[in-house]
User: Which sequence fits this backbone?
């Protein structure tokens, strides 16, 4: 049993008003509007942030490009500096490897016997080193080995064997900076030249010079 | 147990000029619950102000939380379309600020009766014949967008003249669905199926009066109108909570004694089976006048005469009661023959004083007891409520009971 069967309500459903202070009819569109505005603001913030990030990204990219060029330049300069340093080092090696033979040669004149005439005194260059080995584009600036051995050839004329032996004995001591004890008589023979009425003897002695070290 | 069967709140969201979306919110119109409702009788001819009651469903019983005469709205019920521009707003006292209000309107232009579907349709076609139509209703365009929303359109112009006066062929209105409020030819109609096949009880009120009343209580403040009924309709529902009515499982014959008339209401299982206004007798006002004139007593002594045994009021009362009893006999016969209802007693509500004399007349004439319960019987009355003139609040109480759609 329900009193609704006695309820003859003339009011239509759509005419009923809400007694709630919060009116759905007003709040719904207002809420929707606020939500839309909120979304718009949020979108704006996100868009602004995106633009800022993009700007920062571009700036960083530009800076990166510039830095890359600078970096490449620095790398190049560093390579150059290293190269120059190596060259300097090599020069230092050469400097260290300078052999002073002026004094021993000046002293040599004092020990040359009377019956010996020196016709040739030569330092023979070492065998040429390979400065452009395979797979190397740039030729090497200096020798690949830091020890260089040279030969000193002494050629002359004499009257007999004894003065030569005397010379070789004289060179055996006091000339360590010029020659070592490693020596070899390349030739000793009759020459066509004459002195004092008799045929002279030509000789050639080859001395191994002390090692020349390219090192600090 | 109270039930909330109020319809959903409908919002029309207008997307474009032609496309709208209907969004239904449950328990619309703020009517989340009808367990707290105020019933108001408006424009009663015998009362300055409006009688109002507030009933609340609490602890498995309906309580009468307030009953008072409150100040009416600023303005009279409009009798023409031209009067509708004056649309006051109305605020009820704090004691009556429930979520919902059921308004019962006394209007000379209202109707409430039982009839056949054809007769009701004829009445709908006649429409506002009695109410002169004039200028358009001066109100905001109801179809106007507000924050993108479109309220349900209300008639912006007066309804057309009755079809009978027009040269165009009359359109036969569709018979409204049960309990659905419809507008036809300037009147608002609502019908209810009666137990007797083909018969309906219906009430109607001019459209402009309904609209005017519906806007009295503003939105956003308690209460707002959830129901508008004509006074007779509310009166019929006022017996629903009576213990006698419930004990009889809704099968009852009730005589409503009103100042202007006597009404007979028959109920079958709580549904309206009979509604009849006694045609040949006045109401309680006429009865009291007859006693005053016949016995030569003043107004202040009428109740004493009716209740005490010092003076026998029956000689003055009998000529007045006779036509009422005759109609009562007819009503009994109708309910017995058509509905198979047999009564050994009937309820007589709203009499105030002299019920035992009426019961004696009825027992003599019809062998029927008349029981005169207090109109507030069935309600738990709060302490602060003065319930001494309960009969005056019958219409307001009935409006509230019907508006709450009480079930038991």
Assistant:
């Amino acid at each position: 049993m329900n009193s609704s069967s006695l309820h003859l309500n003339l009011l239509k459903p759509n005419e009923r008003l809400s007694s709630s202070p919060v009116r759905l009819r007003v709040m719904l569109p207002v809420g929707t509007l606020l939500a839309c505005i909120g979304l718009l603001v949020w979108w704006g913030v996100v868009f602004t942030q995106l633009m800022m990030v993009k700007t920062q990204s571009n700036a960083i990219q530009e800076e990166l490009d510039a830095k890359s060029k600078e970096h490449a330049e620095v790398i190049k300069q560093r390579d150059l500096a290293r190269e120059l340093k190596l060259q300097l080092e090599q020069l230092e090696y050469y400097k260290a490897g300078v052999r002073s033979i002026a004094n021993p040669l000046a002293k040599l004149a004092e020990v040359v016997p009377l019956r010996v005439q020196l016709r040739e005194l030569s330092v023979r260059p070492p065998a040429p080193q390979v400065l452009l080995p395979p797979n190397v584009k740039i030729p090497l600036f200096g020798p690949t080995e830091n020890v260089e051995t040279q030969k000193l050839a002494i050629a002359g004329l004499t009257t007999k064997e004894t003065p030569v032996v005397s010379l070789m004995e004289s060179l055996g001591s006091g000339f360590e900076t010029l020659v070592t004890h490693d020596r070899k008589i390349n030739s000793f023979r009759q020459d066509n030249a004459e002195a004092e009425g008799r045929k002279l003897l030509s000789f050639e002695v080859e001395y191994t010079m002390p090692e020349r070290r390219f090192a600090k | 147990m109270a039930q909330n069967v109020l319809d959903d709140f409908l919002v029309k969201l207008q997307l474009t000029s032609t496309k709208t979306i209907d969004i239904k919110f449950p328990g619309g119109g703020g009517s989340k619950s009808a367990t707290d409702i105020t019933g108001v009788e408006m424009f009663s001819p015998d009362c300055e102000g409006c009688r109002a009651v507030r009933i609340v469903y609490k602890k498995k019983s309906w309580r009468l939380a307030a009953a008072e005469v409150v100040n009416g709205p600023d303005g009279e019920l409009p009798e023409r379309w031209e009067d509708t521009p004056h649309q006051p707003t109305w605020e009820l006292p704090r004691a009556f600020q429930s979520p919902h209000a059921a308004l019962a309107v006394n209007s000379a232009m209202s109707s409430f009766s039982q009839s056949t579907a054809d007769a009701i349709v004829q009445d709908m076609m006649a429409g506002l014949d009695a109410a002169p139509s004039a200028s358009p209703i001066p109100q905001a365009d109801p179809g106007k967008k507000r924050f993108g929303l479109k309220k349900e359109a209300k008639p912006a112009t007066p309804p057309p003249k009755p079809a009978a006066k027009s040269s165009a062929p009359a359109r036969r209105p569709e018979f409204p669905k049960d309990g659905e409020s419809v507008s036809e030819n300037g009147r608002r109609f609502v019908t209810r199926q009666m137990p007797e096949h083909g018969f309906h009880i219906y009430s109607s009120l001019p459209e402009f009066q309904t609209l005017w009343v519906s806007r009295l209580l503003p939105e956003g403040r308690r209460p707002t109108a959830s129901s508008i009924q004509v006074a007779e309709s509310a009166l019929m529902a006022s017996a629903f909570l009576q213990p006698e009515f419930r004990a009889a499982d809704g099968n009852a014959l009730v005589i409503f004694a009103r100042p202007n008339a006597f009404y007979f209401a028959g109920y079958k299982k709580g549904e309206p089976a009979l509604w009849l206004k006694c045609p040949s007798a006045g109401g309680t006002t006429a009865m009291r006048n007859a006693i005053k004139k016949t016995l030569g007593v003043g107004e202040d002594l009428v109740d004493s005469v009716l209740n005490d045994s010092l003076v026998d009021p029956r000689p003055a009362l009998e000529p007045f009661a006779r036509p009422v009893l005759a109609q009562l006999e007819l009503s009994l016969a109708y309910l017995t023959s058509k509905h198979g209802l047999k009564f050994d007693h009937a309820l007589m509500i709203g009499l105030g004083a002299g019920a035992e004399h009426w019961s004696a007349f009825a027992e003599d004439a019809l062998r029927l007891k008349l029981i005169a319960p207090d109109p507030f019987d069935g309600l738990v009355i709060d302490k602060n409520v003065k319930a001494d003139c309960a009969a005056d609040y019958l219409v307001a109480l009935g409006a509230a009971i019907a508006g709450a759609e009480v079930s038991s």
In short: Residues 1-8, 27-33, 130-157, 159-166 of chain B have pLDDT under 50 and may be disordered.
